[in-house]
Write a structure and sequence with these properties.
Oligomer: homodimer
Catalytic activity (chains A, B): thiamine phosphate + ATP = thiamine diphosphate + ADP
Distance between the termini of chain A: 14 Å
CATH superfamily of the largest domain in chain A: PurM-like C-terminal domain
Keywords (chains A, B): ATP-binding, Kinase, Magnesium, Metal-binding, Nucleotide-binding, Thiamine biosynthesis, Transferase
Strand content of chain A: 15-25%
Structural class of chain A: alpha+beta
Family (chains A, B): Belongs to the thiamine-monophosphate kinase family.
Pathway (chains A, B): Cofactor biosynthesis; thiamine diphosphate biosynthesis; thiamine diphosphate from thiamine phosphate: step 1/1
GO molecular function (chains A, B): ATP binding; magnesium ion binding; thiamine-phosphate kinase activity
Number of strands of chain A: 12
Number of helices of chain A: 11
CATH class of the largest domain in chain A: Alpha Beta
Helix content of chain A: 25-40%
Shape of chain A: globular
Largest sheet of chain A: 7 strands, mixed
Radius of gyration of chain A: 18 Å
Chain lengths: 313, 313
């Protein structure tokens, strides 16, 4: 059983397993584990790792349209280097501050591989929570920010020059879209984050809402770093998360749509609300398509968009 | 830097790192990581692992005197066996139900070693939260339940017979002392759980409250399973968590006081309240000593009680 099948099984048993965060009363709670081999490429600073680990959980809070309250983290490594630990905590504190949440500590553990487990809690406002299940045919499909940021970062890490690694670290330190999620909460009919890539997110929203999606490829907001790095290929080892490119899609499309790890919000809203919401989202909001009947499936420019992305290791 | 030094460093930087759980408004939040090599000996059923992992975090909520609300868990393994996953979730659900909390799901991750990361949240009542820092000389030192349960379980796992392993699994599935913690919250001047062993817990309380402790060895409530298994020795490999026995202490004392992992509550209360609180604690409450001036240190029958326990791997 792979991770997706296992998650599907969990979702059948647990009421909240199908959304980005569980809702308990007015509180949302979400947890994630990241580790070196699959999530922190060589060159990832501990400050960046702290930022990104905690940010991943804050992104899930954002995807519920909730206010972020606090986060905790477990830091596990084979040894505790005081400088690395301080940098990790500084990154965790700073990403929390970026969304007006509080980093309140955590736990340490000895592990054979650098591993983090983060949990964030949030507070549902009058407008939320927003689930994955409410999209209706005719709604506008929108994304915050720009896609492909993490795919570009991976390629920059591979260059191994100081400048490229520094830029990669910057790209890895995304701002969780908490402010955007709250701005969208009153109007969004469905929402999730794009951590598994836009394509896979759309298939998950399609299943949860029983709808299809029609994506306009030219409308996709692509991060400028994609242009800087597209065309390069990474080592084609089995573990390369950029693997599987080619087929009908261009490299750039792969980076923006299938790679994932961008932690942007993917949402459906009434078409008449798009202009207003664009102004309300600090990260920007782009309409990239339309919700369709379920029979139409998930398509981009009329072609089926495969349910393929980065399967988290 | 070892884990204790690292935790001390964290505690200096983060306001909540010195207690069992962080307090954010009326919410308490706590997180833990457990893994196969150090926390789940051969023979540990996945149901038991789910129960114990989530229970460890619920125990931290209990130690704050808070009501338990919900828990999440990350389940990481090198493959996802559907039966094992179902059993883990069943254990997680059941331990939550045992304390009137809700298991609301979590995340999956692929990892080289079976690893869990759990987080629990709770709600502070009018009586709480209880920190580690309020003990005063003259207070009575008390513990809930009985000590040595997990040390005995380890020895039963080592026997490898079906009956012994089944009994060991039962002993491993402790009831988090949430009801006891709430009963104690209004009176307790300091409280924590005994996950690192009574001895180490007392040293931590002593440091946080700037007091000493005088323990009466004969008063210590020892779990009946200790008598069943004391005198046996486990393999003296470097990783054996029962290692370090001998010295001046008997094996039974080692099991009850230094091994830890019992998840009982250790608290200080006004002496006049002990009888009333004993009746109010479902797990029972035993007075085992008295809070002293800090200069007296931590002693058992007048001898120094070393700050030695099971350092979590």
């Amino acid at each position: 059983m792979n991770e997706r099948d296992a998650l599907r099984r969990l979702a059948a048993d647990l009421p909240h397993a199908g959304d980005d965060a569980a809702v308990v009363g007015d509180t949302v709670i979400t947890t994630d584990m990241l580790h070196e081999r699959t999530d922190f490429p060589p060159g990832t600073a501990r400050y960046t790792a702290g930022w990104r680990s905690v940010g991943a959980s804050l992104s899930d809070v954002a995807a519920m349209g909730a206010e972020a309250i606090a986060a905790v983290a477990v830091y596990a490594d084979d040894a505790f280097d005081p400088t690395e630990l301080d940098e990790f905590v500084a990154g965790a504190v700073d990403v929390c501050e970026s969304v007006d949440a509080e980093y309140v500590g955590g736990d340490l553990d000895t592990h054979t591989e650098f591993t983090t487990a983060t949990t964030a809690i949030g507070s549902v406002t009058d407008a939320g929570p927003v689930f994955r299940s409410g999209a209706e045919p005719g709604d506008a499909l929108c994304v915050t920010g720009r896609l492909g940021r993490s795919a570009a970062a991976l390629r920059l890490f591979d260059r191994e020059t100081d400048a490229a690694v520094e830029r990669a670290n910057e790209l890895f330190r995304f701002t969780p879209r908490v402010a955007d999620g709250r701005a969208l909460a009153a109007d969004a009919t469905a929402m999730m984050d794009s951590s598994d890539g836009l394509a896979r997110s759309l298939h998950q929203l399609a299943e949860a809402s029983d709808v299809g999606f029609s994506v306009d490829r030219d409308a996709l907001p692509v991060h400028p770093a994609v242009a800087e790095t597209s065309g390069e290929t990474t080592d084609a080892s089995g573990e390369s998360p950029v693997g599987g490119s080619g087929d009908e899609a261009t490299d750039r499309f792969e980076m923006a749509v299938h790679f994932g790890e961008d932690f942007e919000l993917v949402c459906t809203v009434p078409p008449a609300a798009v202009d207003r919401l664009r102004d309300a989202c600090p990260a920007g909001l782009t309409r990239v398509g339309t919700v369709t009947e379920p029979e139409a499936g998930v398509t981009a420019d009329g072609d089926p968009l495969p349910d393929r992305g980065y399967t988290h290791g």
